[in-house]
Amino acid sequence: MGFDLGGLLQQYLGGSQKIDNTKLADDYHQVVENAPAGVVEQGLSETFRSDQTPPFSQMIGDLFGNASPQQKAGMLGQLLSGLSPAVLASVAGGLGGLAHSNGNAAAAITPEQAGQLTPGQVTTIAAQAEQHNPSIIDRMSSFYAEHPGLVKTIGSAALAIAMAKIAQRTQGK
Fold it and tell me: What would the pLDDT profile of 11-21 be if each residue is shown by its tens digit?
């Protein structure tokens, strides 16, 4: 008997049923292991853009606060790589020397540097990144699709929305 991805996701469609928050993180893990990566990425993108979740920048800041040092460096690399050199200098210049003379802070962020930033500072960076490059949401969604343990910390309401969006994607809606 194989895993029933459709059956699992069906409970997250429509929102009429009460979601079991104690099972939600485990269900998400099962979905990530069994759904196509592109579907998970699209579901996360839609979650970050949803008017039912906190703003993208706030969720990124919160996720940063729950990330490992290596994940923090990866997150910052993604966020900063989507910024023009001028915006990068204005945002990263005041953040612990993340802006380098070559303008490519994203390529050189270490876990130690990332660990010096607060979730609030990353919220600011994410807001600037989104304002100057809206496709950053898709880039970050791809990053988070590779880190399901981190996504589980996004909060039960946002995670339930992600599950619903993934369910819609698997059913072609």
Answer: 777 655 567 77
